[in-house]
Amino acid sequence: MSRPLRIEYENAFYHVMNRGRGRENIFLSDNDFKYFLHCIEQASLRFNIEVHSYCLMTNHYHLLIKTPDANLGRAMKHINGLYTQYFNRTHNTDGALFRGRYKAALVDADNYLLHVSRYIHRNPIETNTPLVKDLVKYKWSSYSAFIKRGARPKWLVRDFIFSLQGKKRKYAAYKQFVEFENNKEISAFYSAKKLLSVLGCEDFIENIKDYIAKSDSERKLVAKKHSADDVIAYLVQHFNVEVDEIITVKKGRKEKNLPRWFAIKLWQDLSGLNLQVLADIYNVQHYSAISKTVGRLNTLMVEDKKIKLQYEKLRNGLMSEVKI
Fold first, then answer.
1. Domain named Chromosomal replication initiator DnaA C-terminal: which ranges (predicted)?
2. 8, 59, 92, 113: which has the fewest C-beta neighbours closer than 10 Å?
3. Buried-state track 169-182, b at ≥16 Cβ within 10 A, e below 16
């Protein structure tokens, strides 16, 4: 059986979903729900993704994600992998937690994004979840934040959804839309036995086909894996530093060690190595230190466009010079 179509490009919107293996529960306690939200927050910092709606149920989840950097696969691998490690460690289990690869429907934002957000937020009552009669009271969804009845996670983006309504009373208008309006086309899309990879109008689908045809060679290049030796050799040569300057923690130093930071992010993006392997290479005790370093660099790139441009040049140069 062929894998579902994966289409990635800058600023694309996706409805992402996954459920537990054998329909088993993936959230057993409030702490589990909270940790999954933590995983989303970490992914938003590390991969620069935007989360526009979410709903976590006991045995599955829904996310509405925008990818400014065309990296949905890496972001979801991080979320699912990090949460699975936590779940197995916390509940003394092992093996796969989810039923397989996540499902992701590419969404035509102009015509369907508002309806997808509605579908996600109505999930607790549409699935007949026990004891859930009022959407506002379901705390593992972003709905209460959208109608200003609950706290908003700092990584949750609402303004674009609100802009699609074109109304001044955005909170009340969104509540009215979610609780009383319906769309038969959306209902038919999600009730199909096999979820399609694209939810969009004919023009949108044609544009996606053009993108696939034009960027096929580029997408294959991005998919290639770079070895750790390739990455470090490239950084050592570019910055004219010793290997030790990159792989060794310099205690007591307060200045930014950009060669090391760039190396960690490049290795993570291109080498295919997991966090624990990178932690061992960089001589840190816990893999969370790797995530924190990448998070600091991501923040720095947002604040300083020159740093972001420097990273992009390094990444492009590495991809073009290193032969796999």
1. 227-297
2. 92
3. ebeeebbebbbeee
CB atoms within 10 A of CB 86: 17
The 10 Å Cβ neighbour count of residue 312 is 12
Contact 295, 45 (CB under 8 A): yes
Tens of pLDDT, residues 50-66: 999 999 999 999 999 99
pLDDT tens for 168-209 read 789 999 999 998 888 888 988 988 878 888 999 988 888 877
Token pair 């088993």 is found at 24
Q: Which one, of 87, 107, 89, lies nearest residue 98 by Cα? A: 87
What gap in Å lies between CA 161 and CA 101, rounded to an integer? 27
Distance between CA atoms of residues 99 and 48, nearest Å: 26
The answer to whether the beta carbons of residues 72 and 106 sit under 8 Å apart is: no
